Amino acid sequence: MAESVLILGAGLVGSSLGLALTRAGYDVVLWDIASSHALVAAGLGAGRVSDESTDDPDVVVVATPPDVIPELVAEVLGKFPDAVITDVGSVKAPILRAIDRLAPEHRRYVGSHPMAGSQFTGPLTASGDLFRDRTWVVTPEPENAPEDVAVIERLARDVGAKVVTMPASEHDVAVAQVSHVPHLMSILTASHLREVPTPNLQLAGQGIRDVTRIAGSDPALWRQILTSNADAVRHELLEVAQDLAYLIDQLDRPDALERFLGMGQAGALSLVGKHGQDPLDMLEVTVEIPDEPRALARLFTDIGEAGFNVEDFELNHDPIREVGYLSISVEREMAEKLKTKIMEGGWQAWLGSRK
Amino acid sequence: MAESVLILGAGLVGSSLGLALTRAGYDVVLWDIASSHALVAAGLGAGRVSDESTDDPDVVVVATPPDVIPELVAEVLGKFPDAVITDVGSVKAPILRAIDRLAPEHRRYVGSHPMAGSQFTGPLTASGDLFRDRTWVVTPEPENAPEDVAVIERLARDVGAKVVTMPASEHDVAVAQVSHVPHLMSILTASHLREVPTPNLQLAGQGIRDVTRIAGSDPALWRQILTSNADAVRHELLEVAQDLAYLIDQLDRPDALERFLGMGQAGALSLVGKHGQDPLDMLEVTVEIPDEPRALARLFTDIGEAGFNVEDFELNHDPIREVGYLSISVEREMAEKLKTKIMEGGWQAWLGSRK
C-alpha cells in the first residue's frame, strides 16, 4: 500500500511537494488554514483535501511559514502517535528548541530543509519538479530512530532531491553563509536604489537585475527566517562589514583592489557548476586551421551553430606547415560535444587541459 | 554610399558592434592590437580587417579597455581630421579629462557608453544583438557640434539601442549607483565564500548564484572601471556601509527588519520590467468558476498550458449564484494574453486593476 503523507500548508513548497509525491506514488492529503489553497493545490493534482476526521498519515510534513511550525509539529506529534513528522523550515535549531518546550517527547520529529523555492508564493506557482536535483538537508538528532530518519531521507530522494545530512546547528550556520547573507546583500543593493534619481535607473542593466532578483521575495517570510537565525547572520554580516570597509579603502589602490576583485571572481566560479556539482573546470579544444581566411569563417559558423559559450580562445600559427591552431576554452562537460561537432565539420580537433 | 566606421578593439563589444553595424548597412573596418582578434571578428562577419594605410572612416569607435582609450582617441583625432570619434568606456569624465590633456582640440570627440556586455570576453562571444533594446548613453559636451552628436546617436539607434543623453559627470554618478555598486556587492558576497567550509557550499542554491554571477567578470577590466570612478563609487559605498550597520542592529528587531526588507523589495520591483521599461505593474484577471471541483482543475490546466508566472491569486464564492471567482494577478503586459487564453477555454473572464 502506498505510504500516506499529510502535508500541512499548501503554499508553493507544500503544493509542489504534493505534486511530486503524488507522482512518486504516495497517497497525499493536503491541509491549509486557507481552505481555498488546499482546494487549488488538489485541483492541480497535488493530492486530496483533508477532512481532518479520517486522516491517518504515516508521515506528516509541516510546510507552513516558520512561525507556526513548532506548534503544528507539537500538535501532530500528539494527534498521530505512529507518524514520523518533519518540516521544511529554513532554520532548524530554533524550531527544535521551540518543539522541545511544547512537546518534550519528540523523537518522531526529524527536521529537514528542502533548498528549493522561488520568489513566488502560493499553490498556483507550484511545480512537481521544484525539488529535482536540489539539496534537501535532513538534520537528525541523537534521539531520532534511524528508521524514522530513513523515512524522511527516502521521501526527499523520491521527489528527486539530493540528501545532505548535518546537525541542526551546523545547518543554520551554513544557510546563514550561502543563503541569508546573500539575501541581505541583495536587499542592501536593492534598497540603495531609494537614493537613486529615477532618470539614472534608465542605465540599469542585467547585472543589477540579477543581484537584486531575490530581494523581491516576501519580507514577512524573510523577517521570520532572519530573526530566527539572527546570531549566525550577525556573525557573517560583521565579517562582510569589515570587507566593505577594506574595499572602500582600496578604491584608490588598483593592485589591492584587483586582488580583492579576484577573490570575488574565485568565489563566484566556485559556484558556477550545477547545484551541488563540482566547480567550474575548463578544457581546451584545439582545431587545426588551413592558412586561408575563409577557413576561420567556416569554423566559426560551425561553432556558432553548436551554440556554445566560448570563454576564451587563442590563435597560433605554425609557419613551417602553414597551418594555424585555434584553442578554445570551454566547460569540461561541453568540451567533448564541441570537439565532436567541430570534427563533424571535417576539422582536425583535439581535447586537452587548459594551460 | 554607406557610412564607413573604423572600430578600434575587436573584443566582445567591438566585434558585436561590427556585426550589428555591418547588418545595418555600414562599411565596417576592424583593428585590434592583437591582430588575431580582428581576423576572428572579420571571420564572424563583423567587417573587414584594417590595413591602416588606406583607412578613411567617417566615424571611429574606440572599443578598447579603458586605460588606452584617451591616447587612441587623441591619435585618431589627429590622423582622421574629418571623422567623428566616440568610445565605449564605462566611465566618461576621467576619459574626457585625459583627452583634454593629450589633445586640447577635441570637439569632434563625442563620448558614449553602450550599456551592454556580458561576463565573457573576446570576439568569439560577440553577438549582433548585443545592443538591441539596451541603453546607449551619449555624453555630449557644449563644444560638440550638434551634427556630430547626431551621428553617434544615429549609430547607436541603428544597432537597436535606446539613446539616453546626459552630461559625463551625471553619467558617472548614475553608473556608480546602478552598475559599479551592484558589482561590488556581488564581489563582497562572492569573496565572503572564502570563509565558508566546502561542505556548506552544498547548500548553495539559485539565489546566491544570481547574486554572484557578475562577480565572475574580469578583475583587470573592473580594476580600471572602478579606480577611474573611485570618488562616485566611494560616496555610494559609504551609504551602503551605513545601511549595513543599521541592518546588523535590526536583526533582533522584527518590525524594523521587515521594513528594511520591504525597502529592498520595492527597489527590486522597480527594476523588474524589461530594460528601460516601466516598473512592475500588475493587473488582475478574474474568472467565473462553476461550483464543482473539476472546474478548478480544468482551469489550472488551461492556465498551465499558457505558461504564466502567476504571482498571486484569490478565490471568492458567491453563495447565491453558486459560482466562484478566481482572481489572478499577473504583469500588465501578460494580462490580456492570459485573459484571451482563458476565454478560449470557454470561461468567463474580466480584466481589472489590482486591489
UniProtKB/TrEMBL annotation, chains A, B:
GO biological process: tyrosine biosynthetic process
Protein's recorded name: Prephenate dehydrogenase
Enzyme class, UniProt record, top EC level: oxidoreductase
Xref: Pfam families: PDH_C, PDH_N
Catalysed reaction equations from the record: prephenate + NAD(+) = 3-(4-hydroxyphenyl)pyruvate + CO2 + NADH
Biological pathway: Amino-acid biosynthesis; L-tyrosine biosynthesis; (4-hydroxyphenyl)pyruvate from prephenate (NAD(+) route): step 1/1
Similarity remark: Belongs to the prephenate/arogenate dehydrogenase family.
InterPro entries assigned: 6-PGluconate_DH-like_C_sf, ACT-like_dom_sf, ACT_dom, NAD(P)-bd_dom_sf, PDH_C, PDH_N, Preph/Arog_dehydrog, Prephen_DH
